[in-house]
Amino acid sequence: MLFEFDPDQRLWQGSVREVVAKECPPALVRAVADDGADTVALWKVYAGLGWTELTDPAEAVELAIVLEELGRATDPTPYLATMTQFAPLAPGAGEPERTGAAVLDGVTARRDGRGWVLEGTARHVLDGDRADRLAVVTGEGVFVVDAAEVTATRAAVFDPVLHVADVAFGGVRVGQEQRTGADPGRARHIALAGMAMTMVGACRRILDLTLEHVRTRHQFGAPIGSFQAVQHKAADMHVAVERAKALAYFAALTIAADDPRRRVAAAMAKAAAGECQSLVVRHGLQLFGAMGFTWENDLQFALKRALAGEQLLGGAAEHRALIAKECHAVEL
Question: Family, per the entry (predicted)?
């Protein structure tokens, strides 16, 4: 496996970064948080550029590049849920302009004649309240249903532009044609890698803002970035981000190559991203001082996106335990 971008990937990264800087600036994110600004136009930009068509596992690295930049920008659209949770569970059912979400647990399927009846309530579904379609994982398989058939209630979360919802299924009937045959295990690996990459992008934004602050903030007649204690914290943040980034891209590479190590690689990526956000959030807030806690400071959006990522799909401790279990099994 190559751990450096090839020329096409570097060009892709530069193009994505340029588009995100133009179409998803901090002012838009703040408008969504403050005034509930619409994100439909931004989603159409992503779809028009072909970003919503990166559903082939072989394109996992290219998708990861997009996710890193969107994580850095605190993307307010359902892109993460659609591309890393819904799409892997609904292969062949993708429509580039439609959004999707994944219901991973809490729903059962009961056989009824030639079809099934879905019942139950799923909690904390990412973008479950604004997706056009839902991929529902049950013991009988994965089913795709229209959002109009369920009841979704958005839950209050600390990230003001993140949508998380409780989704209730009150006897939704589905047929064989709605059953996807997807592998939930493989789909979970993609979801974990995508979440880790998003967290890396958010942590990179925290680091960038912090470095800018310590270069320009003066105390005792000198930039605070010239103080050794500040430099040590900034260096620790950089190392944590680079480590998490390397593991997230390694997970993307194993997915692209259909490498059997992708299960452990995805867990390693999510664990490293969780450990990264813990350090980067703590140091970033401390180096900003009281300014870091204010609503007016854009630092808050990256902080909250990184913290939210740790709560979704299992935290660092859970994934470290999974890695330890896998390693122990190999040794036996």
Answer: Belongs to the acyl-CoA dehydrogenase family.
CA–CA distance, 332 with 326 (Å, rounded to integer): 10
3-state SS track over the chain: CCCCCCHHHHHHHHHHHHHHHHHCCHHHHHHHHHHCCCCHHHHHHHHHCCHHHCCCHHHHHHHHHHHHHHHHHCCCCCHHHHHHHHHHHCCCCCCCCCCEEEECCCEEEEEECCEEEEEEEEEEEECCCCCCEEEEEECCEEEEEEHHHCEEEECCCCCCCCCEEEEEEEEEEECHHHECCCCHHHHHHHHHHHHHHHHHHHHHHHHHHHHHHHHHCEECCEEHHHCHHHHHHHHHHHHHHHHHHHHHHHHHHHHHCCCCCHHHHHHHHHHHHHHHHHHHHHHHHHHHHHHHHCCCCCHHHHHHHHHHHHHCCCCHHHHHHHHHHHHHHHHC
Give the sheet arrangement for strand 151-154, strand by strand.
107-112, 115-126, 164-174, 151-154
For 223-259, the pLDDT digits (tens) are 999 999 999 999 999 999 999 999 999 999 999 999 9
* Mean pLDDT, each 10-residue run in order, the chain (332 residues): 82 97 97 94 96 95 98 98 96 86 96 92 96 96 96 94 96 93 94 98 98 92 92 97 97 95 96 98 93 89 96 95 83 57
Whole-model pTM over 0.90: yes
Residue 49 token pair: 């550029």
* Of 237, 190, 184, the residue nearest 211 (C-alpha): 237
CATH entry 3.90.226.10 includes domain 184-331: no
| CATH 3.40.50.2300, applies to 100-178 | no
pLDDT of residue 2: 60
